[in-house]
Amino acid sequence: MSSSRPWFCPSSISATLTDPASKLVTGEFKTTSLNFHGTKERIKKMFDKIELSVSSYDTAWVAMVPSPNCSETPCFPECTKWILDNQLGDGSWSLPHRHPLLVKDALSSTLACILALKRWGVGEEQINKGLRFIDLNSDSVMDNEQHRPIGFDIIFPGMIEYARDLDLNLPLKPTDINSMLRRRDLELRSGGGKNLEGRRAYLAYVSEGIGKLQDWEMAMKYQRKNGSLFNSPSATAAAFIHIQDAECLHYIRSLLQKFGNAVPTIYPLDIYARLSMVDALESLGIDRHFRKEIKIVLDETYRFWLQGEEEIFSDSATCALAFRILRLNGYDVSPDTLNQFSEHHFSNSLGGYLKDLRAVLELYRAMQLSYPDESLLEKQNPWTSYFLKQGLSNVSLCGDKLRKNIIGEVHDTLNFPYHADLQRLAIRRRIKNCATDDMRILKTSYCCSAIGSQDFLKLAVEDFNICQSIQREELKHIGRWVVERRLDKLKFARQKEAYCYFSAAATLFAPELSDARMSWAKNGVLTTVVDDFFDVGGSEEELVNLIQLIERWDANGSADFCSEKVEIIYSAIHSTISEIGDKSFRWQGRDVKSHVIKIWLDLLKSMLTEAQWSSNKSVPTLEEYMTTAHVSFALGPIVLPALYFVGPKLSEEVAGHPELLNLYKVMSTCGRLLNDWRSFKRESEEGKLNAVSLYMIHGGGAVTEEEAVEHFKGLIDGQRRQMLRLVLQEKGSVIPRPCKDLFWNMIKILHTFYMKDDGFTSNEMINVAKAMINEPISLDELL
């Protein structure tokens, strides 16, 4: 029969992870609790108010809005005053400390501000300083190495024409002006091809650059309930300037009531910004420090979701992000709303026309959370995956420099699917690629502190290193325990302590979960030893002897040991179960030892059944095989005892509840099928049977190897999605979420280890595991 061997790797990893040559000194990375607390408090304050940078570009367009009562009087003179008071030292209007590749952005904002001042006949000094800035940077207008804000080729030439109407001479080369006007004319005349609707949305979005040539009836079809065009103050201001729409004016006035005498480049953004903040904290592994604040955000978002809030459902990125964050946190959200963002719909939207990588990334991430009966959601996966891959291959040089964070996110998401990405490894990657620059670029650049903050990175690095220092000590303890229990004397057994500990620490990393990690790791080591004992190391007499000893639970009685091997294994299992029983009092207020003994007996008896099948050359039915094999896969002793050490109290009734038993069965079945699929060829060569070979045997020769493999890949996918539903859905569930998470953690471990073959063998993964435990992160190197 197939070896009961679950998900274990070659022994090389143990020596690698515990390399004594490590030069790391824990003390170097400790941060005072005062600094840690201070960083947390600053982040908590970010939940209270979303800070959006004001946009000189959009403020200029609002400043150009005339009074409804007199076209020669500004409707918002306070915006004109803001422009007069906020010119930068170099003569430009833009975000301070701008990126060297954002000169076109500065030119666009500066020209808009100059036009606003010229329109109302004020600020001659500021106008002249602005013109000097344009003169000094005029070469950047046609520089293809410079980043081009959205709509620049329409908006900037449009402003040049408006400057002519105002008799304003711009210090630009006539050849450059003519070239830009021709390019704008060509773009306005082009049809848009298959993406006609997306092009119309784009033209409405850049309405300020089209002006009198705009089809305003078409553009106003995109007006939102708040009166804006795409939540864009500049486009909305242009609409009011040309057609005096009352709702447009209402939107602008509401902005100024909120922000004072200047406006941002996009509003509202609160829901997306707060969800992005929650997403960042979760992906950096520091969300546990902000549970109260995050709960408030999620409850509010869910209320908006149920109300059909336009701010969520009119934007694909916000909708997909809300769906993903809410579903992952146990809220009941339907994917039906995401089905509106099909490939056809998206391609005919503003985001599709602009090839919005971030929006498709959010859609792709949301697709990975589909349940078994959500086929429409799953059908979105191919096109979103293709779109992201194309986006990576088509990144321009300047785009790559300005969008390195989103490019890194896309790369990681494609290479590490949600169900095969260990949280601790993902956290380390995210920290290394963390965006501490909160700048985004639309028609102009803007900043939002909730989207990117150095405090996120500081806290994440401090937290990572604190957890890591604890994990290093725990790994040393595991090594000493192996020697003390004489497990290293069993030459037939693989030495897997570091590997087993890694699987625990990669998902259960919070300091307070030390007991859960130690239970997981020690039982992982023991199941490896026992697996090898039943597979190659023990006789049938020894196997039966071990089971009988566990059944009697005799602490001494060495005369009953039929061999030294049985004595070592039994003593190690006995001491570990006793330790779990003692610790369980602190967590559960009761001794759970009898339950853990039963878990171990179920495993040993299933392994004995398989050993007897192999000895007798029996060929069980596939159903008989899976009934035994999902238990012999040996996840029971690893996962089930750890449930008692993650926080919630579990009564005997809950510990034996059908829901928990189903979680265990689905997890173990998924793992067994993964193992048998990946090890099929090797075990066939060794003359061993497993699920794949039995499926072919009982198919009477009608099933090919390729058909069998595809069949089991489908079963694995179904089991995984079923597990996701069991873990995330809270309605009718009696098992606490922290406990259910352990089953999903194991699913992720299994998919990670079986991603390429039948074990955790690649040098790349070994190096990643070593870094996770032994190499602290330096904050100075990241800033």
Automatic annotation (TrEMBL):
<dbReference type="InterPro" id="IPR001906">
    <property type="entry name" value="Terpene_synth_N"/>
</dbReference>
<dbReference type="InterPro" id="IPR050148">
    <property type="entry name" value="Terpene_synthase-like"/>
</dbReference>
<dbReference type="GO" id="GO:0000287">
    <property type="term" value="F:magnesium ion binding"/>
</dbReference>
<protein>
    <recommendedName>
        <fullName>ent-kaurene synthase</fullName>
        <ecNumber>4.2.3.19</ecNumber>
    </recommendedName>
</protein>
<dbReference type="InterPro" id="IPR044814">
    <property type="entry name" value="Terpene_cyclase_plant_C1"/>
</dbReference>
<feature type="domain" description="Terpene synthase metal-binding">
    <location>
        <begin position="487"/>
        <end position="721"/>
    </location>
</feature>
<keyword id="KW-0479">Metal-binding</keyword>
<dbReference type="GO" id="GO:0009507">
    <property type="term" value="C:chloroplast"/>
</dbReference>
<dbReference type="InterPro" id="IPR005630">
    <property type="entry name" value="Terpene_synthase_metal-bd"/>
</dbReference>
<dbReference type="InterPro" id="IPR008930">
    <property type="entry name" value="Terpenoid_cyclase/PrenylTrfase"/>
</dbReference>
<dbReference type="InterPro" id="IPR036965">
    <property type="entry name" value="Terpene_synth_N_sf"/>
</dbReference>
<feature type="domain" description="Terpene synthase N-terminal">
    <location>
        <begin position="215"/>
        <end position="405"/>
    </location>
</feature>
<dbReference type="GO" id="GO:0009899">
    <property type="term" value="F:ent-kaurene synthase activity"/>
</dbReference>
<dbReference type="Pfam" id="PF03936">
    <property type="entry name" value="Terpene_synth_C"/>
</dbReference>
<dbReference type="GO" id="GO:0009686">
    <property type="term" value="P:gibberellin biosynthetic process"/>
</dbReference>
<dbReference type="InterPro" id="IPR008949">
    <property type="entry name" value="Isoprenoid_synthase_dom_sf"/>
</dbReference>
<dbReference type="Pfam" id="PF01397">
    <property type="entry name" value="Terpene_synth"/>
</dbReference>
<keyword id="KW-0460">Magnesium</keyword>
<keyword id="KW-0456">Lyase</keyword>
